[in-house]
Design a protein that fits this description.
Layout lengths: L2 H34 L5 H22 L6 H4 L3 H19 L6 H10 L9 H18 L15 H4 L4 H12 L2
Helix pairs in contact: 1-8, 2-4, 4-5, 4-6, 5-6
């Protein structure tokens, strides 16, 4: 391979990288615009699931801590998982510009076939109301340099850094 061949290859690689960077930036801008309009895409849903799972893991770990808050110790572990679903439903509905009240979250739980042992919609809405109160309480309890259940930070938890998008696309393209 000559020097010129490698220079040409480098040129095409740079062009391709720049095109991927612009594409990733355009997609990130489109995602932000769509989210402002209440449209939540599959990537947002995956990032919200990840955020909810982190919170569930944190709550379960806190139950094993010797200084676990009494408010968390009083609820069974299964209820913590249900609380995660309520938190997730609340955040998804909020991003979709829908009212995240107990009946709408209960409807979301049924529609998405989440964990639900309630006999009817009214019973589920009652459980969701109870869980919303717990969420509000847990968001205020100080725990390990923060709060027990942090509120969603859209700037850090839902934004995909364009470099990460570029690397993911490059990995998919490069054999």
């Amino acid at each position: 391979m000559s020097v010129n061949d490698s220079a040409v290859l480098d040129h095409y690689r740079d062009e391709d990288r720049q095109r991927r960077e612009k594409d990733a930036q355009r997609q990130a801008t489109k995602r932000m615009r769509d989210r402002r309009e209440g449209n939540v895409d599959a990537l947002d849903l995956a990032l919200l699931e990840e955020a909810a799972n982190k919170r569930l893991t944190s709550l379960v770990a806190a139950t094993w801590h010797p200084r676990c808050p009494q408010a968390l110790l009083r609820i069974p572990l299964e209820s913590v998982t249900e609380l995660r679903d309520v938190w997730l439903g609340k955040e998804i509905l909020r991003l979709q510009k829908r009212k995240p009240n107990a009946p709408s979250i209960a409807r979301w739980i049924v529609d998405t076939e989440r964990r639900n042992k309630s006999v009817n919609h009214a019973a589920l809405a009652t459980r969701v109301t109870r869980d919303l109160k717990r969420i509000a309480e847990f968001e205020l309890i100080q725990w390990d340099d923060g709060v027990l259940l942090p509120t969603l930070d859209c700037l850090t938890e839902l934004e995909v850094i364009p470099d990460e998008m570029i690397r993911a696309k490059s990995a998919a393209i490069t054999p």
